[in-house]
Design brief:
Number of domains of chain A: 3
Helix content of chain A: 40-55%
Strand content of chain A: 5-15%
Number of strands of chain A: 13
Shape of chain A: globular
Radius of gyration of chain B: 24 Å
Number of strands of chain B: 0
Largest sheet of chain B: none
Structural class of chain B: mainly alpha
Shape of chain B: globular
Helix content of chain B: 55-70%
Strand order of the largest sheet of chain A: 2-1-3-4-5
Oligomer: heterodimer
Distance between the termini of chain A: 82 Å
Radius of gyration of chain A: 26 Å
CATH superfamily of the largest domain in chain A: SGNH hydrolase
Strand content of chain B: under 5%
Number of domains of chain B: 2
CATH architecture of the largest domain in chain A: 3-Layer(aba) Sandwich
Largest interface: A-B, 40 and 30 residues
CATH class of the largest domain in chain A: Alpha Beta
Largest sheet of chain A: 5 strands, parallel
Structural class of chain A: alpha/beta
Mean pLDDT of chain B: 87
Number of helices of chain A: 19
Mean pLDDT of chain A: 88
């Protein structure tokens, strides 16, 4: 009897050990795209008043933490890479079971696509994090035709088990997404260009339109406000038709609609991350600002700042700005750096040497500096034309921009403290900040200087957070 | 249904669970039902062939035995022979129809075309029934055993049907002898915790061989052999050596899983592989490789042909016939026949040179039992066997010859050192894992060679140690095995956006 009890004990131990081991390995081996992206939402879905849905366009275009900072809006970006409208519909269905949003913002890109799923891998990235329940099973039954293929979504260990060779630190220390589901992309690429607006709409129906109807009807039946958008990118003539079709459907159902292809919110020349598809951080901030203002004007969404239940969000925002600063300060390309500085979280002083090749080398640098100043830099072209030194101070809190060209010195009282720029020849050039004695302009006794020198300040705290210098070839300057 | 499919991993526990719960007298029927379901999962229609073969051999067994009981001596012998002949003819006709007809027609067309005769026989492109070579040979083996009076004909049709269709060894062997399996099915041994543990350990080892080693090696071999015109020298040598390991792991892995599943059901199947690559001659290799098939050919073809009893020349002829047929059994293509014949030729040359080798060893003062001498013989045997494997793996005999030529006519030894080998489907970590796996296999084979039974060593340990061993094996296979949808980092490249 005792022997039998011992055997039963060890069998139970084996089962427990197996279950625990499998759970550990499943969590470890999952690459974590979806876990990190949507983990916070799944843990505290009830907190969010606005949910953003769509594909990568939306992921890269709307930053919930900025909405929190500017309006106290609690929102989450649940868009997923490569999501087609049917996938988005099911993501929304799933999300609505664990949240109670006041507003849903839905991107209508890929409306003409017939396929329900772009690739299995992309679907994995989106839904692996969702615990298996009746909704997920319904989602799989609708999106995946082959019953055998559904199994790999039910038990994703079958996909990721042979990822052992790919494991890295990030797999052992999975951190939640500090951007509340969004993703700031860091690059500046010349886009293909937006196709001309077609003269007339060419109506169509597709799997995408069928599911968009289901989305609208579902929101209306639940009493949730819906805002349809078509986000900006270098859309083709066919994609313009998608935007028109979404507009027609919005009118049909009486749903508000924003077609960003027709709104001059972004400048694709400086706001594109890749030639055809996505917005970079600068573009995303512009869309977020626009949407934030629009939502503030048209919807009654609570400002949760200062509320006890949302006390953690300020800490989340701090982590978010730290993350942005970390991303920015690690950059070694001037264009990306300038793009990331076009952010109200950062004030900056930018010095450009008159002899620098910045002006003539590449057309993109001037628009980037203009974009950085919010279009307020007026002396830029003059400096470029004369080949003179250029100095710019950007103070977001006061909304002021200060400029100097050539031998013109500059002194300004900014919200982060005093700025004293002494123009002159060679080693007599100097930049002093906040009444300090340190000269932030790097000029050697021989008169050598970095072509572009930038001092970055935290616009909230007023502290200097980064200093970066670039040489004449626009590589990071080393003495 | 494959052993490494999810379907089987659900099917088998259900079969075992019910098998343990039901009374012993109906277990045969339960296993028969499970076996037919197992086969029909692949193609339900082809179960007719299995049933046909079962009925023909069952009836012939009864008839052969009836001849023994009643008729006069001479008539009796003739009737028995007729029975066996009809039984073989019917079974081999089915085998020929599905496996060799197209090959025969293709070969005929090639000959006619060579002779400039404008006659083109149509090909039928029939789907080859899974396991037909295995169950046909097992059933014919039974017929021969009854004919020789080595066993009594089975009266219970269902038990006999289970003997032919027993699912663990139905589609890939071992080709069991009626003397071993049929009597066990008559009264299956009661499964014990020991047989359960032993069976589980066997299955785990089999899965390791199949999904961790064989399927991993296959990635490299397929990459190189699939595009052999772009690879030369070291690449082809490494791929060929690895193929020898792959086919061993694949085949023996399947056999070991079959043994394990049968053991869990309380049935002991024969060992099919016994450390074959530690053989010191090709003849020994064939005593250790696919033992059930080699034994079948020995008992039912080589010996009836006269074996080695009718002079040296006849012996060599019999060897060539046996190995030629063995090659054909493995596949309907001339490259398989050449592979079989090559193995026969090796043994003939070995036999002819045996006295010379012995004299040379004595002259040079080499001790034949020394480790170094045995090691060299093992390497030489592996080289010969592996060279023959090229014909087995290549798409055709012509391709095999070109591969062998490219193997030895290119000089690219730097490939060993510059990481190029990691560009053939397996990255460095996977390649390293494969090497460690092969070393583990080698160590296990040495233990087997020296009659050290690893399973018994595990069984003697405390429960916690057994538990840890099993868990390590399970997670090792789950983690490192090539199964499931698989993760291809390249497919996830989009995530960078």
């Amino acid at each position: 009897m005792k022997k039998r009890a011992i055997k039963i004990f060890w069998v139970c131990m084996a089962v427990l050990l197996f279950a625990a081991g499998l759970r550990f390995l499943t969590d470890l081996l999952n690459p974590g795209y979806a876990y990190t992206k949507n983990k916070e939402f799944l843990e505290e879905g009830e907190m969010y008043d606005i949910l953003f849905f769509g594909n990568s366009h939306m992921t890269n275009a709307v930053y919930p933490m900025e909405l929190w900072h500017d309006y106290g809006i609690a929102s989450y970006n649940l868009a997923g890479y490569g999501n087609q409208i049917p996938t988005t519909y099911w993501m929304m269905e799933y999300a609505l079971e664990c949240s109670n949003p006041k507003l849903i913002v839905m991107d209508c890109a890929h409306l003409k696509v017939e396929e329900k799923v772009q690739t299995k891998e992309l679907l994995h990235a989106q839904i692996d994090c969702l615990p298996l329940n009746r909704d997920k099973w319904r989602m799989l039954c609708d999106l995946i035709e082959d019953p055998k293929e559904r199994l790999e979504f039910v038990w994703d260990f079958s996909v990721y088990h042979d990822r052992w060779w790919d494991l890295g630190q990030g797999d052992f220390e999975k951190e939640s997404n500090v951007e509340k589901g969004a993703k700031i992309e860091i690059d500046v690429v010349s886009p293909q260009g937006l196709a001309d607006r077609p003269a007339q709409a060419d109506p169509f129906t597709s799997t995408g339109t069928d599911y968009l109807r289901r989305i609208i009807e579902e929101c209306q039946s639940r009493g949730i406000e819906l805002l349809l958008v078509y986000l900006p990118y270098s859309a083709s003539a066919q994609e313009w038709q998608e935007a028109f079709c979404a507009e027609q459907m919005a009118e049909e159902y009486g749903v508000p609609y924003l077609n960003f292809l027709e709104l001059s919110v972004v400048d694709l020349a400086v706001d594109s991350y890749d030639p055809h598809e996505h917005l970079n951080g600068s573009g995303g901030r512009k869309v977020t600002d626009y949407l934030g203002a629009y939502i503030d004007r048209h919807y009654e969404i609570a400002d949760h700042r200062g509320e006890e239940a949302y006390s953690g969000w300020d800490e989340d925002y701090r982590r978010y700005t730290d993350y942005k600063l970390q991303c920015t300060s690690s950059l070694e390309a001037l264009d990306k750096y300038l793009m990331m500085l076009a952010d109200p979280a950062f004030d900056c002083c930018v010095y450009v040497s008159g002899e620098a090749a910045v002006w003539g080398r590449d057309e993109k640098y001037m628009p980037l500096i203009e974009s950085l100043s919010g279009g307020k830099a007026e002396k830029l072209e003059e400096a470029a034309a004369l080949g003179e030194d250029y100095f710019l101070v950007l103070d977001h809190k006061s909304g002021q921009v200060y400029e100097s060209v050539g031998g013109e010195s500059l002194q300004a009282e900014c919200s982060f403290g005093q700025v004293r720029y002494e123009a002159g020849k060679e080693e007599s050039k100097a930049l002093y900040l906040q009444d300090g004695e340190e000269n932030y302009l790097h000029v050697t006794p021989q008169g050598n200087e970095a072509a572009v020198q930038i001092v970055v300040l935290d616009s909230e705290k007023g502290s200097i957070v980064d200093v970066k210098r670039f040489d004449g070839k626009l590589a990071v300057y080393t003495e | 249904m494959l052993f490494n499919s999810l379907h089987f991993l659900i099917f088998f526990p259900v079969v075992v669970g019910i098998y343990y719960l039901i009374p012993q007298k109906i277990r045969t029927y339960w296993l028969l039902a499970a076996s037919y379901y197992f086969y029909m999962c692949w193609n339900a229609k082809y179960v007719v062939l299995l049933l046909f073969s079962t009925i023909v051999t069952y009836v012939s067994g009864l008839w052969i035995e009836r001849c023994v009981d009643g008729a006069q001596e001479e008539r009796r012998r003739r009737r028995k022979k007729l029975c066996v002949a009809v039984c073989f003819l019917l079974n081999l006709s089915i085998l020929f129809l599905f496996k060799y007809l197209d090959f025969g027609i293709e070969s005929l067309n090639a000959v006619l075309s060579h002779l400039h005769i404008a006659l083109h026989a149509p090909e039928f492109d029939l789907l080859l029934p899974v396991g037909i070579s295995f169950y046909t040979f097992q059933a014919l083996g039974y017929t021969m055993d009854v004919y020789r009076g080595e066993i009594r004909a089975e009266k219970n049709f269902f038990r006999y049907a289970l003997f032919v269709s027993f699912f663990p060894q139905l589609v890939a062997g071992p080709i069991e002898r009626s003397k071993n399996l049929l009597c066990q099915l008559d009264r299956p041994a009661k499964p014990t915790p020991d047989s359960l543990r032993d069976g589980c350990l066997l299955m785990l080892w089999g899965y390791f061989l199949k999904v961790v080693l064989a399927d991993r090696i296959a990635v490299f071999v397929d990459a190189v052999y699939g595009d052999f015109e772009t690879y030369t020298g070291v690449y082809l040598i490494v791929a060929t050596v690895l193929f020898a390991v792959q086919i061993y792991c694949d085949f023996s892995g399947y056999s070991v899983i079959a043994m394990g599943t049968a053991k869990i059901l309380g049935i002991r199947l024969m060992e099919n592989f016994d450390a074959p690559y530690l053989s010191t001659s090709v003849a020994e290799f064939w005593r250790r490789w696919h033992i059930s098939l080699s034994g079948w050919f020995r008992d039912y073809l080589y010996i009836p042909l006269g074996g080695n009893r009718k002079g040296r020349l006849r012996k060599y002829g019999n060897l060539l016939i046996t190995f030629g047929v063995s090659g054909l059994w493995h596949g309907a293509d001339w490259s398989y026949v050449i592979w079989g014949l090559l193995n026969g030729v090796y043994q003939i040359i070995g036999d002819v040179l045996s006295p010379v080798k012995k004299k040379a060893a004595a002259f040079l003062g080499i001790k034949e039992d020394s480790l170094s001498h045995r090691g060299i013989r093992m390497v030489a045997t592996f080289f010969l066997v592996d060279l023959a494997w090229v014909f087995f793996r290549a798409d055709s005999a012509l391709h095999a010859l070109r591969i062998i030529k490219r193997m030895f006519t290119a000089d690219n030894h730097w490939v060993w050192f510059d990481g190029s080998l990691y560009q053939c489907g397996l990255n460095q970590k996977n390649f390293t894992l494969m090497i460690w796996g092969i070393l583990l296999l080698f160590a296990a084979d040495i233990c087997k060679y020296k009659h050290i039974r690893i399973r018994e060593i595990v069984a003697k340990q405390d429960y916690w140690a057994q538990l840890l061993t099993v868990m390590a094996a399970v997670f090792g296979i789950l983690l490192l095995g090539m199964w499931g949808a698989g993760y291809d980092a390249a497919n996830f490249i989009y995530f960078q956006f």
